[in-house]
Structure formats: structure tokens, C-alpha cells
Amino acid sequence: MGIVGLGKGPVSLVSQMDMSFGARRFSQCLVPFHTPPSISSKMSFGSGSLVSGLGTVMTILVALEDPTYYYVTLNGISVGSTYLPFRSSGSITKGNMFLDSGTPLTIVPRDFYNRLEAEVKRVVDLPLIDDPQMRTQLCYGRDVQAKGPLLTAHFDGDANVELKQASTFIEAKDGIFCFTVTPIDDPGGIVGNFAQTDYLIGFDIDGSTVSFKPTDCTKL
Questions:
Q1: Nearest 5°: phi and psi at 170?
Q2: CB 74 within 8 A of CB 86
Q3: Is the dihedral of CA 79, 84, 86, 87 positive or negative?
Q4: CA-based, 20 to 30 A from 99: which of 29, 120, 193, 212?
Q5: Per-residue pLDDT tens for 85-94?
Q6: Confidence (pTM)
Q7: What is the SS3 assignment for 11?
Q8: 3-class DSSP assignment, residue 145
């Protein structure tokens, strides 16, 4: 068993692709958590990995000092119709988040998380579940997947990505569904793989873009 490097660094598989692949790009479609193991996520590389068509949105990859990660700019998240900016001041640092398929939870700065959690609590008309094993996580019963709010991530370039309700709250224990966003004491964060499920996501190294297309990844 080995590891395939998919970062933007010079030794990764993607960076070493030449024109025989058609382009330095790849796409992924991650199946939701708890999908039967007989159904796998999908990846494609090169010219056949272009993501386009109805519903596709695109944002710019931001070049920062560390070339490994896929940095993007998250302007804010809407909980239903309520927009919450990434920073209370309204000023946004370019490349404030990076996409990582190896990190399950989405991680955001604590100030942003506190505002996000407060708004989710306000709109979810369900009792909270306080489970010692879940520590400080925001958790509800199974009804939250049907009655929870729709979250929309707003990336630069008017790339608005609706976060699937089935991936916003994940069954952490039998009958206990917990919020898949967590805080960090840092100015930046990570878009985790729960938030990326059921999207065909195209990473174009040469074009410096990331594209999102709503897709039932279990049917690809």
C-alpha cells in the first residue's frame, strides 16, 4: 500500500503530470459518510477531469508561500438567509482557507465559529444533546438532518456552494448527529471532506481554479 500525493508541491503526482495527460488537473467526487463500502469515491486526472456544465461554480486558487495546499478565499457562510462574514470586521484575507480531502471536519477561526454556531442554534428548533463523549461539539437527534438549516459557503468569484444537510450533521454515535464544523485559534482554516461530499470538484493547477458541480457521487 502506498500514498498518492495530490498537493501542488513539485514532487506530487499532479505536479509531475506532463502534456501527455492533457493538463495538470484532477477531479474528485467524494461519497457521503456512511455510504456502503461497495460504493467508492471517484477520481480522474488530466484532460478528462474538466468540471463544467449546469450548476458548476468556480473560484480562484490563491498562491501563498507554501505551494502544497489548495488555498481559496471564503467570504462567509449563510445559515438559511442569514449571511455571516468570515471576519466580524468584514475585511477578508485572500487564501484564508484550503481544501483538504484528508481532514473530515471543516475548521474555521473561533470568532467565525462562535457566530456560526449561535445562528445554527437559533434556527434549529430541536433539543441539544449533551453527550460527554462528544465534548463541546454541537449535537442533536437524527431529526436535525431533515430540519436543520441549509448552509451555503460563499467563495470568491460568486462561487456559492450549498453544503449538503446530510454532511452538515454527521451521526457521531447511534442517534446523535453532530455539527461538522469546529473552531481553531488561527486566522485561517480548512474545508474538510464532509463539506466536499456529493460535489464533483475540479482542481486545475495550470488554470489556478477550483470548480464545484453538485453531483450524486454514489452514481458516478
A1: -110, 140
A2: yes
A3: negative
A4: 120
A5: 999 987 899 9
A6: 0.94
A7: coil
A8: helix
User: In the numeric block, which cell numbers belong to residue 127?
Assistant: 433539543
b/e for 199-209, b at 16 or more Cβ within 10 A?
Answer: bbbbbbbebeb
CA–CA separation, 8 vs 208, rounded Å? 10
Alpha-carbon span 152 to 48, nearest angstrom:
28
Q: What are phi and psi of 50, to 5 degrees?
A: -65, 130
How many Cβ atoms from other residues are within 10 Å of residue 94's Cβ? 12
- Cα–Cα distance for residue pair 184/66, rounded to 1 Å: 20
Q: Given this model, what pLDDT does residue 4 score?
A: 77
Q: In this structure, what C-alpha cell is assigned to residue 214?
A: 453538485
pLDDT at residue 84 in the model: 97
Alpha carbon separation from 144 to 20, 127, 152 (Å, rounded): 48, 10, 17
Beta bridge partners of 171: 177
What local confidence, expressed as pLDDT, does residue 80 receive?
Answer: 95
